[in-house]
TrEMBL record:
One of its GO terms (molecular function) is hydrolase activity. Keywords: Glycosidase, Hydrolase. The lineage of its organism: Bacteria, Bacillati, Actinomycetota, Actinomycetes, Micrococcales. It comes from Microbacterium psychrotolerans. Residues 632-686 form the DUF4982 domain. It holds the Pfam family DUF4982. This is Glycoside hydrolase family 2 TIM barrel-domain containing protein. Residues 156-261 form the Glycoside hydrolase family 2 immunoglobulin-like beta-sandwich domain. Residues 270-422 form the Glycoside hydrolase family 2 catalytic domain. Residues 703-803 form the Glycoside hydrolase family domain. Belongs to the glycosyl hydrolase 2 family.
């Protein structure tokens, strides 16, 4: 069977809404939460003050008479959440989880020779610690095949034996027979190399019992294989052809992409791919796509992966739900490794309606859905069975951890299992009774909210994390999977090398402000295979998590921000896809950037005592365009791996400061603001080396539209991204020009989302008007049919500008 996007139009309405009873047309994927009015309600803080809702979708599916002899499947990649699918009024399936694939076999429900009504119900409300969106947020596919066929995800490809000379590709194909009589078919399996040439073929006869299935294993030799890696992400393809018993009539076709590569893991040599050591430069990433909310388009996912890789990351952790097919495909193509995570909760709730009460009944099906989706993707190397699960230290939790780990290994023995564990939270949550002597005098102060706990733990995390209590509580939690995922427990990296010499560790979630020390620990300890920062890409919800805190903040200013905070503000990359100063600092720490980097702290931070959260970078931007700053000096940060840097303003030296690893790769200058040119030079062996320059934006300013791509595909998967900025004639952005911009879309396209990276706003991403933030915003255009799409931007005091996109 092969998936195709469900080709029919959908309608949508809110359920139980007095103001809306009629269906209206809608395009999938769709996130109705993004268009809802935010509420100043503390109970909605975690979601960015977005309320939930209950929704109903409707589509018509014509079923020709000849489909009586076919098998028809409707597949929903994600319906958030508590989905119920009805076909012609009959309940076909329910799925509590909002993140698992739902496959609906339609054969028993269809009315052949006419139209069929598909109804999908969903709801979302206070069921996660971040913004989830709601509704049919990922693509819907239709698959049609003969009654004897290869089912969806029915091909499993492994490369059990290979070297530089040759590789054995093992293809295990499930052939299913829905007929009431035995079936005989011929199965032809071809391996197609990255150049499109056939690299190997195997053919065999298959007998399938009535109402049953048969697995066929074929071993195909591929000579001189092109091995997949982060540097060379070469992809092969399996083409499967199921034909009549004589082989002369094609009946069913399937295809699967895969990569030829090996994985090795041990505590002495760490992680190796194809025999080469790999250190994971990881980014934790939430599922939402910024200004388009939770709607998951292929282009949006591919764009995120490309930006993250260009910023120095070579791995992504999907926090805290299974990664989309589109993002997995992009990771395969671009060479980014994946830790795919199942869930944020098991049986103990973290949010009022998070489904913990149904986890025991559904975890096996949800886990199987994730693994069967992942196991042919060469980018996927680790499955995470959960994030910061409070009960993982209990006896029942340990048994569940072992059961889940065993199930993953049964479904896919070729990859590794982890769980993202924060042992300090076991103690803080009082998940189990702890002997006070095992705390070794470490402070213990319970905090109600999970982010508040982590924030309050920063200063005492090391003292608590290395206690005998945490050692005892995490022994089985870390022993059940293959890799010990440690959230904010870098204090244990070296200790566990002594206590558990065979333990392999990954920093599954870490503070971004500590990356210089964390990366030094990864480089010095082979058993620590990498670091995943929180977060690589900023996200909706957990509002204000990464904001700066100050001593003069008003009382009650907790870990998360009050309304109208909307974004977390903790990402290396902001929600528009622009790299923040922390990203360039990280790139320098990784050893991937030799040029220094300049970031200037906003004038309003001067003289204020900071009490930053561990996710908070300083409030700085790469700009030398400021207005009304007075005579007080500005604080200028310079990042560099060089032993020292020199800062110059309009050619005048402001002196040299030490940088490099011994000084946390940074120097701080106090400089009086004078418009013009500010530059930093790396000093190596006493001489000037690499440099970077910031220029003040001139007074001749204009609106500027910059499309990332001008040609768009009309395939339901593509999007056009257009950056809106105000800058001078030389292209220097005016970061102090935060005017309101209005967009108009002419031609066969619509506005999918429009907004800025402002952490605090009451504006909506679904409106055509939005205020720039630091002189920038992002518009996302969805093509609706072939033709020219014209995007026009206008703002008070500026000449309107337009740009054309071509949809074909």
């Amino acid at each position: 069977m092969q998936r195709v996007l469900f080709p029919h139009s959908w309608e949508f309405r809110e359920r139980y809404s007095a103001g809306q009873t009629e269906f209206e047309s809608v395009v999938l994927p769709h996130d109705p939460v993004l268009a809802s009015s935010r509420l100043d309600d503390p109970a909605l803080q975690a979601t960015g003050y977005f309320p939930g809702g209950e929704w109903e979708y409707r589509a018509r599916l014509p079923a020709p008479a000849h489909w009586r002899d076919r098998h028809v499947v409707l597949e929903f990649e994600s319906v958030y959440r508590s989905a119920a699918v009805f076909v012609n009024g009959d309940l076909a399936i329910r799925r509590p989880s909002g993140t698992s694939t739902i496959s609906v076999e339609l054969d028993r429900y269809l009315r052949y020779g006419g139209e069929n009504e598909i109804i999908v119900e969903a709801r979302a409300h206070r069921d996660a610690r971040w913004y989830t969106g709601g509704g049919i947020v990922r693509p819907v596919h239709l698959a049609i095949a003969p009654r004897v066929h290869v089912p969806l995800d029915g091909i499993v490809v492994t490369t059990p034996e290979h070297d530089a000379e040759a590789s054995v590709v093992q293809v295990v194909t499930t052939v299913r027979n829905l007929e009431a009589i035995p079936a005989v078919r011929r199965l032809e399996t071809s391996i197609v190399d990255p150049s499109g040439e056939v690299a190997g073929v195997d053919r065999t006869r298959v007998s399938v019992p009535p109402g049953g299935s048969t697995q066929v294993s074929q071993r195909i030799l591929v000579m001189a294989p092109r091995r997949w890696s982060v540097e060379t992400p070469d992809l092969y393809r399996v083409d499967s052809r199921l034909s009549s018993g004589t082989g002369d009539i094609d009946l069913d076709r399937s295809e699967v992409q895969f990569g030829i590569r090996t994985l090795h893991l041990d505590a002495d040599r760490g992680l190796r791919i194809n025999g080469d050591p790999v250190e994971l430069r990881g980014a934790c990433v939430h599922a939402d796509n910024g200004v388009i909310g939770a709607a998951t388009f292929d282009r949006a996912e591919a764009r995120r992966v490309a930006v993250l890789k260009s910023a120095g990351f070579n791995a992504i952790r999907s926090a805290h739900q299974p990664m989309s097919r589109a993002m997995l495909d992009a990771c395969d193509r671009l060479g980014v490794l994946v830790m795919d995570e199942l869930t944020d909760v098991w049986t103990r709730s973290k949010s009022p309606d998070d489904g913990a009460d149904q986890f025991t009944d559904w975890w096996q099906r949800d886990l199987e859905a994730m693994v069967t989706k992942d196991r042919n993707h060469p980018s996927v190397i680790i499955y995470s069975i959960g994030n910061e699960i409070p009960e993982a230290a209990t006896r029942s939790g340990s048994q569940l951890s072992r059961s889940m780990s065993a199930e993953v290994r049964r479904l896919d023995p070729t990859r590794y299992v982890t769980a993202a564990v924060n042992g300090a939270l076991f103690v803080m949550d009082a998940a189990v009774e702890v002997d006070p002597e095992l705390l070794d005098g470490a402070p213990l102060h319970p905090v109600d909210e999970i982010n508040g706990r982590a924030s309050s733990l920063e200063d005492r995390m090391s003292a608590l994390g290395v206690t005998g209590a945490v050692t005892a509580l995490t022994e089985e939690a870390y022993g059940a999977p293959d890799i010990a995922g440690m959230n904010y427990l870098d204090c244990r990296y070296e200790l566990d090398r002594e206590l558990f010499p065979n333990r392999v560790i990954v920093g599954s979630e870490t503070f971004p402000t500590h990356i210089d020390r964390l990366w030094a620990l990864v480089r010095a300890n082979p058993h620590v295979i990498g670091d995943f920062t929180w977060t690589g890409w900023d996200y909706l919800g957990e509002p204000g998590l990464g904001r700066m805190h100050y001593a003069d903040d008003p009382p009650g200013n907790g870990a998360l921000g009050p309304y109208p905070f909307m974004l977390a503000g903790s990402g290396d990359i902001d929600i528009t896809g622009e790299r923040r100063p922390a990203s360039y600092y990280r790139e320098i720490v990784y050893g991937l950037r030799s040029e220094p980097y300049i970031a200037v702290r906003r004038p309003q931070t001067r003289g204020r005592t900071t009490r930053s959260a561990p996710w908070s970078w300083t409030d700085c931007i790469p700009s030398w365009t400021w207005g009304g700053v007075g005579t007080e000096p500005l604080e200028v940060e310079v990042y560099s791996d060089a032993p020292e840097v020199e800062l110059l303003v309009n050619g005048r030296s402001m002196g040299r400061r030490p940088t490099g690893p011994d000084h946390r790769y940074r120097a701080l200058f106090e400089v009086e603001y004078v418009p013009g040119r500010i530059e930093a030079h790396a000093i190596r062996e006493g001489l000037g080396a690499e440099s970077v320059v910031l220029q003040t934006a001139g007074v001749d300013r204009r609106l500027r539209l910059t499309p990332e791509r001008e040609a768009l595909a009309v395939d339901g998967r593509d999007l056009g991204y257009v950056v809106i900025e105000i800058g001078d004639a030389d292209g220097v952005r005016a970061t102090n020009a935060d005017v309101e911009v209005e967009l108009r879309i002419d031609g066969p396209g619509s506005l999918q989302g429009f907004g800025s990276a402002a952490m605090v706003t009451e504006e909506s991403f679904v409106d055509a008007q939005h205020r720039l933030h630091d002189g920038r915003a992002l518009a996302v255009i969805r093509p609706t049919s072939a033709g020219r799409i014209t995007v026009t931007a206008s703002a008070s005091g500026y000449v309107s500008v337009s740009v054309d996109l071509e949809a074909r």
